[in-house]
């Protein structure tokens, strides 16, 4: 302070003036002093020029000069502590130094000194300000003397401050205004008083002692007949609403509401009657509407800031509003002479009750509003319901065109100046409808029901109200199709009701309580029933009403609870004869598509009606359970037929001739037909969401067009469907699980576009990145930019897809590759990213290591499917390539000694080599990690460049199989003694088997399992009632099959199976020949039951495309006994279970319908995996949702598990239990076991959904910790619930004609 001079004081004053001048707008715009303080406190966060202000620079320099040296010393101390081993982050150091500084003596002295300096500066500024103010006042007095007793008519300018005005607006002035506003005063005096009041700052007026009296005067003055005077008061009110805080404006609002309430209650005022209507050119009506509009504008604005104020303020506003709206005149006189209530005028200015919507939005205000409605103002809800009921009764009695005129009249209100009584009733109905719709949206609002109405015996319940709304859609008229004006459509009764119902549908809890019951669904479907029956009521239902109804039904069907209601009704277990909603919708849609009814024949809106109802159907058949219900209606055939017919129509449209009048009409017709054609294709595409639906789609022959449509929409980044929560992933995964689907994806350009996008991210980078901004080196093995294409490729590359896209195709293996040469197909990807067996391929890659690791990761995932592995090995010798690459990646350390170079590629190759050459479950093989470890030996796992594999990768856990017998096993074998009653021994055996699996599962293995399987299958095959397939005489001898050769895939599969069996001590010498013998005889045996067909699909041109993993598994179970194995297979082939466990059994089989054979889809896919998805949704819904969120289909991974008999996923003992369970208990247990696996993996699946690698996890990881026996009780429950439907569908595969 000693060094603080007058120059320093002047300099600081200038700095502060600069700061205040810069933030003047922010401070003057603040509604209160507290807000202004908050703005200044947070100025650094909100003002980008904060650090450029001279005052801020001064403070920074002052602090630096005073505390700089001390802060540096503390920083040095912390740094030295860190060097001595005390680890602490940067944030911790800053906190420590800050705390030390604030606790120091220097800091306290600095703050004291700075405070004293600023006090001197600010006091000096205040004194100077007061002097300036006195000079301004003297100048104003002189000016006023020069003027002749007139008040300044100029309103306060923006530059004036409230401080300035507060000096000249004192309490005496308020009293003078009060006296001058008295009704007895002359008009001119009252005008001048009001003008003075308007020019004063509202805060000063409202804070004065006489405010209460002034408020009463203003309320009285509002009723002044002079329109100019009344307008001036409204101007003051509007100004107050705009500039004052809530605790002030709520009093003004209350006074305005009170005035209106008194105005409507007084019989002396000119309130129009209902019969007379409202003429908006009438001066009295104009003044009244202005007041109501001002009130409504404030109602809509106040929710944005009333949460910052005490609750009592808001409660006063709400109560004064409800009190006004509850005003009712004496109803003893005739309705025609009824005086209009305030609610009619509020509805005129806010027809859609936006004010109520905003008040109900926040919990803070909603609680008070609903409490007051329940306790004091329930009549407001009652009259709203009454108005809806009256309007509905009017619809039933009055001519439709009269009602329609009302909706059109209000819709075009800007062209009309008169509202009749009927118009007003309609507008009030719209307001009531919107108010009730918003009320039903909230739980506490729904608790206000039921409502008791006058002249009605029964109360109106929630359901009654929703039925009323629904009936309003089709009983009230819709605007004609030609009226495209937005206003008329927005205010048509059907549109308004539909809008309300849409909002209710979007809130799940609300929809469950209000809409999801049989009564409401029946009301929605009533016009459909009428149309199908051809009753007289059908003629009253318009196309627009049906479109609205279909929209609501589609929203209901898109939610699980709504879908179940449509499929089964409220009581799922009941067996009511009346068809449920889904059946009615399907029947109606089929009639429309087949044009089997004269409904709306020739109408322009007919395609829209069809599209709307098919949209409901596709919400249903897009789910497994929905498709099961709708299959009998063959909707896929009807949609396909309509699509083909539309295609023919589009071809017949003449080419428009330039200059002709018909150009626009032809163009419009063409657009309509093309839109309808695309809509039908989209409907067909939605069948592909489920396995069985995909089969139906392939039968229509439109799969190529559907997939092309999907790709076009995918390329344009369009949503797959307006009601679908997720994208195209699941559909792509389903389609790619079949051979025909894979070809369709290739033909559409989907695969080519995907690979091009992948290559751009992997090798080229983004075009929009400047050269001066180099790409960061990727940290993850697969860069984030490539993660999505990688997962889509994983989805695509199921074995049926790989076989169709790669089968019999050679790699390019060019001598030179151009750097601009971009891969376009799967073979190119294998050639350029996976099998890098030449320098030319390596040199063609900009990011060799990253790209090759990507290829190896992809290889690792797709080779988890053993058939894919065998195909790639047979065609491209993948393992040999990897071994050669490992051999080349060595470093000579000494003579005849070479060490492997450990890098990202060699570690990845080592992992892949072990994975593709070693078969076994989670406890039977050890896979080396892909990451390095900390320490001296970062990679302790031995690498190799030739076979056999090092022993460290072979597990020692499950080598020996326990084959001992015990008492329970003897009892089980005893059950196989045939009794007179055939079903009795089967049931006894199954019961005993289940008991053993729960208590001693390990006994079911080895020789004991062989004996059980042989005897059980033998007895079943001898009983004609238990046989599904007919007996086939097989006469081929060894000599007949000796000359036949197996495919290269089968031969490699034999070697793989024998390696696995040998490691388990199950097979002995010459096992390869024996297994080859069994496979050749099986192939000959099954050929006798095949019906070869002509097909472009590669998988249908030859024998079964993959290896026979079931036969290999059975050969190992039979301990390598070839005769016993083949004999068992001959007997087993007669049972239904063989169709689902032994996949080659039904390859181009004559027992299947021709259309199913031609589709190339196996019953395991369209039956087993279809039910797996259906049960998964019901039993483990979180896992089902996780699949959809990940864009992956459960059916694809289940098909892979089942096809290779869980090899590499389960240990051998569990594979035996899987086969035994399905053979002994029935083929449906295949489904239950998969559901049990998903239940077991639930936590892992949810975790990997979050990390976005679910597909990779499920394909690469073994099923750790899963034991079939642990889930037997759970599977028995599944059997009780689902067996009848499941077995019925499985037994229908031979005659499937859907």
TrEMBL record:
Q: Which InterPro entries match?
A: BROMI_C, BROMI_M, BROMI_N, PHAF1/BROMI, Rab-GAP_TBC_sf
Which stretches make up the BROMI C-terminal Rab TBC-like domain? Answer: 862-1293
Chief localization = other
Which terms are listed as keywords in the entry?
Cell projection, Cilium, Cytoplasm, Developmental protein
Q: Which residues form the BROMI middle region domain?
A: 173-844
Q: Does the keyword Lipid metabolism apply?
A: no
Q: Which residues cross the membrane?
A: none
Key word Cytoplasm present: yes
Return one Gene Ontology term, BP aspect: embryonic digit morphogenesis
Recorded hits in Pfam families, A to Z, give: BROMI, BROMI_C, BROMI_N
Gene Ontology cellular-component terms listed: cilium; cytoplasm
Domain (BROMI N-terminal): give its ranges: 12-138
From the Swiss-Prot or TrEMBL record, state where the protein is found. Answer: Cell projection, Cilium; Cytoplasm
Q: How does it assemble?
A: Interacts with CDK20, which promotes CDK20 stability and function. Interacts with FAM149B1; may play a role in cilium assembly.
Q: Relate the protein's function as given in its record.
A: Required for high-level Shh responses in the developing neural tube. Together with CDK20, controls the structure of the primary cilium by coordinating assembly of the ciliary membrane and axoneme, allowing GLI2 to be properly activated in response to Shh signaling.
For this entry, the protein name equals Protein broad-minded
């Amino acid at each position: 302070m000693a060094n603080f001079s007058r120059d320093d004081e002047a300099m600081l004053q200038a700095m502060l003036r600069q700061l205040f001048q810069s933030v003047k707008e922010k401070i003057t715009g603040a509604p209160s002093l507290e807000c202004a303080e908050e703005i200044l406190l947070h100025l650094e966060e909100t003002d980008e020029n904060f650090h450029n202000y001279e005052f801020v620079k001064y403070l920074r320099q002052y602090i630096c000069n005073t505390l700089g040296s001390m802060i540096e010393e503390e920083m040095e101390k912390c740094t030295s502590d860190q060097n001595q081993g005390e680890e602490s982050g940067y944030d911790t150091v800053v906190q420590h130094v800050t705390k030390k500084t604030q606790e120091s003596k220097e800091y306290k002295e600095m703050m004291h000194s700075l405070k004293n300096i600023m006090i001197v500066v600010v006091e000096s500024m205040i004194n100077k300000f007061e002097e300036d103010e006195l000079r301004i006042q003297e100048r104003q007095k002189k000016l006023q003397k020069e003027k002749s007793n007139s008040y300044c008519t100029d309103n306060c300018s923006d530059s004036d401050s409230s401080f300035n005005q507060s000096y000249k607006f004192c309490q005496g002035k308020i009293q003078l205004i009060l006296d001058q506003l008295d009704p007895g005063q002359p008009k001119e005096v009252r005008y001048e008083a009001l003008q003075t009041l308007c020019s004063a700052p509202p805060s000063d007026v409202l804070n004065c002692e006489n405010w209460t009296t002034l408020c009463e005067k203003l309320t009285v003055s509002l009723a002044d007949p002079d329109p100019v005077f009344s307008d001036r008061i409204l101007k003051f009110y509007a100004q107050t609403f705009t500039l004052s805080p809530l605790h002030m404006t709520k009093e003004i609002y209350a006074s305005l509401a009170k005035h209106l309430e008194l105005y409507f209650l007084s019989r002396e005022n000119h309130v129009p009657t209902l019969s007379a209507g409202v003429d908006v050119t009438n001066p009295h009506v104009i003044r009244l509407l202005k007041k109501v509009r001002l009130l409504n504008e404030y109602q809509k604005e106040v929710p944005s800031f009333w949460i910052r104020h005490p609750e009592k303020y808001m409660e006063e506003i709400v109560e004064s509003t409800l009190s006004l709206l509850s005003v009712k005149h004496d109803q003893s006189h005739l309705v025609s002479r009824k005086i209009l209530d305030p609610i009619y005028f509020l509805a005129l200015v806010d027809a859609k009750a936006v004010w109520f919507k905003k008040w109900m939005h926040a919990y803070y205000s909603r609680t008070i509003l609903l409490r007051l409605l329940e306790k004091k103002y329930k009549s407001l809800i009652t009259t709203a319901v009454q108005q809806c009921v009256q309007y509905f009764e009017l619809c039933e009695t009055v001519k439709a065109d009269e009602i329609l005129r009302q909706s059109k009249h209000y819709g075009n209100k800007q062209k009309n100046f008169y509202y009749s009584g009927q118009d007003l009733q309609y507008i009030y109905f719209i307001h009531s409808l919107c108010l009730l719709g918003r009320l039903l949206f909230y739980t506490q609002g729904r608790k206000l029901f039921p409502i008791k109405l006058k002249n009605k015996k029964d109360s109106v319940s929630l359901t009654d109200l929703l039925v009323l709304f629904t009936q309003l859609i089709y009983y009230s008229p819709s605007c004609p199709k030609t009226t495209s004006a937005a206003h008329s459509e927005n205010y048509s009764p059907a549109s308004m009701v539909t809008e309300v119902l849409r909002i209710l549908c979007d809130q799940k809890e609300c929809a469950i309580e209000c809409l999801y019951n049989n009564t409401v669904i029946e009301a929605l479907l009533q016009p459909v029933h009428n149309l199908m029956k051809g009753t007289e009521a059908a003629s009253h239902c318009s196309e627009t009403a049906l479109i609205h109804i279909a929209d609501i039904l589609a929203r209901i069907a898109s939610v699980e609870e709504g879908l179940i209601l449509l499929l089964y009704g409220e009581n799922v277990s009941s067996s009511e004869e009346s068809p449920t909603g889904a059946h009615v919708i399907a029947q109606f849609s089929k009639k429309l598509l087949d044009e089997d009814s004269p409904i709306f024949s020739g109408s322009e809106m007919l395609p829209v009606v069809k599209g709307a109802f098919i949209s409901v159907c596709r919400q249903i058949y897009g789910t497994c359970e929905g498709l099961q219900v709708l299959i009998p209606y063959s909707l896929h055939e009807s949609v396909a037929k309509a699509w083909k017919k539309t295609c023919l129509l589009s071809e017949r449209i003449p080419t428009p001739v330039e200059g002709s009048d018909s150009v626009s009409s032809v163009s419009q017709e063409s657009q309509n037909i093309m839109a309808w054609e695309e809509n039908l294709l989209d409907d067909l595409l939605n069948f592909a969401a489920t396995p069985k639906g995909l089969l139906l789609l392939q039968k229509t022959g439109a799969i190529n067009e559907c997939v092309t449509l999907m790709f076009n929409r995918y390329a344009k980044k369009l949503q797959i469907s307006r009601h679908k929560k997720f994208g195209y992933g699941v559909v792509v995964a389903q389609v790619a699980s079949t051979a025909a689907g894979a070809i369709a994806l290739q033909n559409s350009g989907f695969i080519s576009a995907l690979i091009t996008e992948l290559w751009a991210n992997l090798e080229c980078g983004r075009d929009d990145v400047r050269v001066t901004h180099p790409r960061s080196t990727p940290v993850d093995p697969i860069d984030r930019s490539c993660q999505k294409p990688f997962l889509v490729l994983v989805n695509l590359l199921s074995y049926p897809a790989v076989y169709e896209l790669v089968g019999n195709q050679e790699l390019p293996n060019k001598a030179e590759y151009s750097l601009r040469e971009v891969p376009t197909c799967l073979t190119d990807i294998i050639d350029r990213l996976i099998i890098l067996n030449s320098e030319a391929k390596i040199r063609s890659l900009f990011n060799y290591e990253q790209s090759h690791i990507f290829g190896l990761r992809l290889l690792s995932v797709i080779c988890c499917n053993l058939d894919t592995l065998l195909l790639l090995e047979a065609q491209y010798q993948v393992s040999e390539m990897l071994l050669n690459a490992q051999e080349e990646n060595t470093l000579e350390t000494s003579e005849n000694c070479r060490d492997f170079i450990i890098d990202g590629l060699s570690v990845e190759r080592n992992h892949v080599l072990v994975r593709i050459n070693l078969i076994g479950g989670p406890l039977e093989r050890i896979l080396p990690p892909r990451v390095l470890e900390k320490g001296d030996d970062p990679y302790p796992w031995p690498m190799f460049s030739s076979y056999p594999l090092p022993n460290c990768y072979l597990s020692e856990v499950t080598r020996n199989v326990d084959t001992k017998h015990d008492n329970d096993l003897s009892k089980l074998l005893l059950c196989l003694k045939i009794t007179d009653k055939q079903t009795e021994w089967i049931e006894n055996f199954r019961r005993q088997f289940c008991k053993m699996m729960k208590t001693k599962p390990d006994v079911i293995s080895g020789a004991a399992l062989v004996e059980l399987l042989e005897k059980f299958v033998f007895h079943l095959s001898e009983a004609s009632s238990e046989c599904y397939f007919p007996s086939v005489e097989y006469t081929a001898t060894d000599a007949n099959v000796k000359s036949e050769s197996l495919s290269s895939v089968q031969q490699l599969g034999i070697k793989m199976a024998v390696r696995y069996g040998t490691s388990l001590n199950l097979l002995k010498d010459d096992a390869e020949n024996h297994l080859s013998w069994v496979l050749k005889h099986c192939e000959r045996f099954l050929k006798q039951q095949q019906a070869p067909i002509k097909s472009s699909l590669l998988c249908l041109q030859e024998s079964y495309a993959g290896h026979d993993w079931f036969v290999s598994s059975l050969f190992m179970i039979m301990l390598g006994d070839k005769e016993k194995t083949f004999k068992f297979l001959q007997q087993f082939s007669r049972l239904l279970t063989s169709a689902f466990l032994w996949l080659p059994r039904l390859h181009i089989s004559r027992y299947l319908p021709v259309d199913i054979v031609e589709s190339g889809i196996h019953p395991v896919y369209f039956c087993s995996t279809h039910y797996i998805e259906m049960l998964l949704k019901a039993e483990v819904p979180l896992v089902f949702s996780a699949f959809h969120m990940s864009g992956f289909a459960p059916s694809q991974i289940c098909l892979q598990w089942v096809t290779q008999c869980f090899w590499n996923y389960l240990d051998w003992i569990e594979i035996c239990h899987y086969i035994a369970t399905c053979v002994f208990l029935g083929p449906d247990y295949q489904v239950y076991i998969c559901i049990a696996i998903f239940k077991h993996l639930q936590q892992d699946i949810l975790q990997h959904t979050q990390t976005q690698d679910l597909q990779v996890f499920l394909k690469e990881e073994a099923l750790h910790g899963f034991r079939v026996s642990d889930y037997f009780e759970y599977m028995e429950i599944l059997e009780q619930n689902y067996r009848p439907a499941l077995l019925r569908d499985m037994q229908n595969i031979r005659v499937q004609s859907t």
